[in-house]
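I'll show an entry:

:::
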Amino acid sequence: MRLFHYADDTEIKQGRTTDIYFVRTKEILKAKKMENIHVVAEVTAGDLPNGWPWGVLCGIEEAAHLLEGCPLDVYAMPEGTIFFSDDFKGIREPVAFVEGPYGEFCILETPLLGLICQSSGVATKAARMRKVAGKKTLISFGMRRMHPAISPMLDRAAYVGGFDGVSSLMGAEVVEAGPSGTMPHALIIAIGDQVEAWKAFDEIIPSDVPRVCITDTYFDEKIESIMAADALKDRLVGVRLDTPRSRKGDFAEIVKEVRWELDVRGHKHVKIFVSGGLNEESVKTLSEAGAEAFGVGTSVSNAATVDFALDLIEVEGKPSAKRGKLSRKKQVWRCPSCMTDLVLPFSDPEPNCPKCAGKMITMLRPLIKSGEIATELPKPSEIRQFVLNQLEKMPPLF
């Protein structure tokens, strides 16, 4: 008996998490001896959530493992690509296409979309946070809000989107880094005294773990921050303010006050780490107030999913698509200089950038050829750096 409600690797690969109508479609095609009908299907997004101007593509590694072994060719944008819903001319952009016998992959449509829709939403939200936080520290804190079975995926998506670290153990393994975190209020309450709890942390936890004390358990944030600085002195790296919304205080003003009082007492080295209900707007505001690190939870782990869809656009070499979709296999061309995209039929020659007349590059590249993964799958740290490089070319959010 399974204790937790999740699907394992084998069940996902077998299509056990698909919608029933794809199973029925496969049965009908098989009965009509059309299971091997050759199609091209493309993955596109409609309007991005909340009016986002761009998204970050995530989940391509998992998509490759899902389709690996099927007699298909798959082209996709590299994982971590900043993509747009439409190109320069308003043509919807494919982020990937699948080509081969439809009966071989129709039951995998549902898990394929699930692998990229949610992770791309998380990676995009993380990248937006990174854009407003600049060089300041971002840590993923959102695992307690989501089903634990997917916590490694969520932490990975936040990390590749630009976060500096993750708090969960398995998430840290996936991104190949040590887990990051401070201490909970529970430690303070269990010991019964803030100073004793902070000193116990300093005494027992290995020295390579930064000493960041939570300073809003019993007293005013300013008072507890000063107490922590006096207790740990130069060993104190930071104080964490997890001011709950129920306090109805001005969080930015609290940050400014704490910063001032630490500075005038000679504790300028102590950083202010904030957490609790953060989003892009509050990260920007608190950053300007003096916060230097952010623990972000629900707004990233529960980010809006990107509404990708998979649609047939060719059948047996002939253009064929439902209404509202454009038929024929396509290529996305991008100008690396100005991040302008242009969608053209796949066989069209290389264009010049319609904005700056510069050289353009292809964005849909071989991922799977004849069922085998045809490219190196980069490490999370490499994808993250790719995202950061692209973010530098994107305009400010606010």
